[in-house]
Design brief:
The protein is of the alpha/beta class and about 240 residues long. About 35% of the residues lie in helices and about 25% in strands. It has one domain: Spore Coat Polysaccharide Biosynthesis Protein SpsA, Chain A (Alpha-Beta Complex).
Length: about 240
């Protein structure tokens, strides 16, 4: 583990046209001490062509057979060498101070397991359409019997698009759960939050893109379903499979 280094895991699946914007926003970060691990998860749109345009030594590129987001993220976790870890979607954009502010938050509170912030919503063309302010992390069990529990869970128990894990915590909580496919980020957020407090920065430090080629877009079109992942997640919550530290 390299002190001060931020590992950014960036999985990409058939989003060649958006990848350059995401990478450029990362390379423009005020906090420059990072490694960027780009994982091509079996794309068919020649993602490598975009990555080859960069000569930045902080970029690592790996070509994988398609395995889905949780397994791709686990591959990246195994490669990480940073004191801090985040993963970033190929269709999102970082605000220039995102990493620096998240790092400062974790350095300020050394016993905190992660740091999060709010973020903007943007459309497929990059136009801001809204905000997600986020807020203090809540215990998911309080939503177990609520009618709109899936929505409440995502809003209150998910780190969202702008976050930073402490690598030592990732080592403790383990890898992403492939059985929570499509909702693996919420599952991992809950596990990290159970380990220790989460720092919250009341700023908008990322741009989260809503578009039809995202995982959510594919589910809305009926091309994918994450229902089995949701069932798995609620089962874990119900049986208290999220122990405190």
């Amino acid at each position: 583990m390299i002190e001060g280094l931020v590992t950014i895991v960036l999985p990409v699946y058939n989003q060649k046209d958006l990848l350059k914007e995401a990478v450029d926003s990362i390379l423009a970060q005020e906090y420059a001490f990072f490694e960027l691990i780009i994982l091509n998860d079996g794309s068919t749109d020649n993602v490598k062509e975009v990555v080859e345009r960069y000569s930045d030594e902080r970029i690592q590129y790996y070509n994988l057979s398609h395995r889905g987001l949780p397994e791709a993220l686990n591959y990246g976790l195994r490669l990480s060498t940073g004191e801090f870890i985040t993963w970033f979607s190929a269709d999102n954009l970082m605000h220039p101070t995102m990493l620096s502010e998240l790092v400062v938050a974790l350095r300020k509170d050394s016993f905190h397991s992660a740091a999060i912030s709010g973020y903007y919503h943007i459309d497929s063309n990059g136009k801001v359409t809204g905000q997600n302010i986020k807020g203090p992390f809540k215990d998911p069990k309080q939503f177990l019997n609520k009618q709109n529990r899936d929505l409440l869970l995502v809003q209150n128990c998910n780190f969202g698009a702008s976050f930073l894990y402490r690598a030592s915590v990732c080592k403790y909580v383990g890898e992403f759960d492939p059985l929570c496919y499509g909702i693996e980020d919420v599952d991992y957020s809950i596990r990290v939050a159970k380990f220790g407090p989460v720092s919250y920065i009341p700023k908008l430090l990322c741009y989260y893109r809503w578009h039809e080629n995202s995982m959510g877009g594919r589910e809305r079109r009926g091309e994918e379903s994450f229902d089995s992942g949701r069932v798995r997640l609620w089962q874990k919550i119900a049986i208290s499979e999220y122990p405190n530290r």
